[in-house]
Amino acid sequence: MKSIKTIIGVTLLMLGAIGFASCSQEDDDVVIQEKGNLLKIRTSVADSRGVITGTTFQQGDEIGICVTTVDGHDYTGNSQNIRATYTGSDWRLERDVELREDEAIVYAYYPYDAHATDSIDINLAPATTPEQTDYLYGNCQGVSLNNSTANIRFNHALARITLAVTKGVNDVGEGVVSAAKIVNGYYTFRVHPTGELVRLQGNSISIKGKMSVKTGEIVKINNPEDYISSFANLVIDESVQNIEFMIIPNGKKNAEGSLLIPLGGICAILTIDGKDYEISLPNVLRYEAGQQYTYPITVNRTSVSDPSVIREAVYMGFNGDDGKPLYWSVCNLGASTPEDYGGLYGWGDPTGENTSTNLNDYPSANPPADISGTEYDVVRAMWGNEWRMPSQREFRNLMNSCICEWATQKGISGFLFTSKSNGNKLFLPRTPERVGTEVEWYDLGSSPACDYWTSTLNAKTPERALCFLFAQDDDFLAISTGGYRYEGHPIRPVYSQP
User: Fold this and answer.
1) What pLDDT is recorded for position 81?
2) 257 vs 30, which has greater pLDDT?
3) Rounded to whole angstroms, how far apart are CA atoms 424 and 401?
4) Considering just the CA atoms, what is the radius of gyration of the chain in Å?
5) How many Å apart are CA 230 and CA 240, to the nearest integer?
6) Dist. CA 155–CA 161, nearest whole Å
7) Is the previous residue joined to 490 through a cis bond, with omega within 30 degrees of 0?
């Protein structure tokens, strides 16, 4: 089913996890039968990921059909795992199913497996092909002699990850991606009573599993060495190039109903210009069937042997000022980890190096009302492409869209934001401030606090620009009147998908 297979390539897709939407193939595929008491099939595919590679079947595609009584027994004595082939306009069953007045349940799955009984095997590790099959399942109840057409709506059994890769404007390499893969990350725990630290590979994803042909439920086969691999063979540029992976949903519940949390998270490994670059992807506790998860990655190497500045970002569940899904960098500008505070920059200084206390240098005596994405935006100057400073409204939406709490991460204090809509997390470390060349930490009253620049000028007091202020006491968050534009504060870059 070529149009339902996910093709590694350059297709531009909608960002974010997309919920269930419309059906797409509702007619022109009824089996033409001579007898009115024979089972007929009509299909549709749930467009649950928004814009996907395809939602219709192609001529020659094959599905498996199982027909049972309402109490689960074989309907005719020979109505299990019937092959049905799509002709381009209708489905042809390899053997007839004669219907009676008593009702039947018709189950269907894709792709057809001649050896299927209750389940089919899933293997998501293509060795030499860029294609991965999108497994589907569906059913129709109430089929009988008086209702002989089974209208089967297929659902996606897998989740999909998209790496939206962009070549930064200052990247020095050619940008040839020869391979890409998703791997399980590592986690560390301490063994008691010895105190030994043990490093193990996680179990967030697996390449193998078994899918029920009736319910679509997948039991994954865990192996710490398993990974999903795909060969891209593409050249990245300043436009978005998508590399896609089908993955087995995780985060199943146990018998008591508690969510079994996958361990270790996942990483992407891209082979660019012959060198491997590993990128830790923001952790998603539960990848759900039929959902789309997109991670924008900007390749911005200072040398072809330096893999340290591939940008990572996380979607926190809301759009930016431009109406597009907004992604937040996992690190501050100038930082190499989420816990580093990075650089301290004057507002409106695109060089990032000015330590003058003359307001006219930031950027002038009459600055614009907002510098996000302009020539005065140091994020755009340093990272290029679609990266920019966040506005005060976007910071306010971050507060309103998340559960916000003072936290400590790897020994560093700061604020942790957990999206109310998708559970993604973003950590902003506490930072000092700079005036001239003097750097110092400050408190709000007796509470540790810090400011992050927004791109928005203080309209009432233009000597200042608005800041995002947080403090430890009472988990205090606010958009403050801001600091003088010559003060040095951290910046958390954002990214809008083109």
Assistant:
1) 96
2) 257
3) 11
4) 27
5) 18
6) 17
7) no
Q: Which two tokens stand for residue 356?
A: 């003058």
Q: What residue type is assigned to position 391 of the chain?
A: S
| Distance (Å, whole) CA 412 – CA 338 | 10
pLDDT given for residue 221 in this prediction: 84
**Rounded Cα–Cα distance for residues 423 and 19 (Å):** 15
- How many Å apart are CA 433 and CA 441, to the nearest integer? 6
| 240 torsion bin: left (phi>0), alpha (psi -120 to 50), beta (else) | beta
Residue 130: its pLDDT value, please?
54
Residue 438 phi, psi dihedral angles, 5° rounding: -90, 125
Question: pLDDT tens digits, residue range 211-246?
Answer: 999 999 998 887 767 788 887 789 999 888 999 888
The pLDDT, as a whole number, for residue 22 is: 35
pLDDT in tens, 428-471: 999 999 999 999 999 988 899 999 999 999 999 999 999 999 99
Position 453 scores a pLDDT of 98
pLDDT at position 29 is 43
Q: What percent of the chain has pLDDT over 70?
A: 83
Instruction: Kindly tell me the burial class for residue 10, based on how many C-beta atoms sit within 10 Å of its own C-beta (0-12, 13-18, 19 or more).
Output: middle
Residue listed under structure tokens 């089974």: 150
HEC-encoded secondary structure of the chain: CCCCCEECCCCCCCCCCCCCCCECCCCCCCCCCCCCCECEEEEEEECCCCCCCCCCCCCCCEEEEEEEECCCCECCCCCCCEEEEECCCCEEECCCCECCCCCEEEEEEECCCCCCCCEEEEECCCCCCCEECCCEEEEEEEEECCECEEEEEEEECCEEEEEEEEECCCCCCCCEEEEEEEEECEEEEEECCCCEEEEEECCCCCCEEEEECCCCCEEEECCCCCEEEECCCEECCCCCEEEEEEECCCCCECCCCCECCCCCCEEEEEEECCEEEEEECCCCCCCCCCCEEEEEEEECCCCCCCCCCEECEEEEEEECCCCCEEEEECCCCCCCCCCCCCCCECCCCCCCCCCCCCHHHCCCCCCCCECCCCCCCHHHHHHCCCEECCCHHHHHHHHHHEEEEEEEECCEEEEEEEECCCCCEEEEECCCEEECCEEECEEECCEEEEEEEEEEECCCCCCEEEEEEEECHHHEEEEEEEEECCCEECCCCEEECC
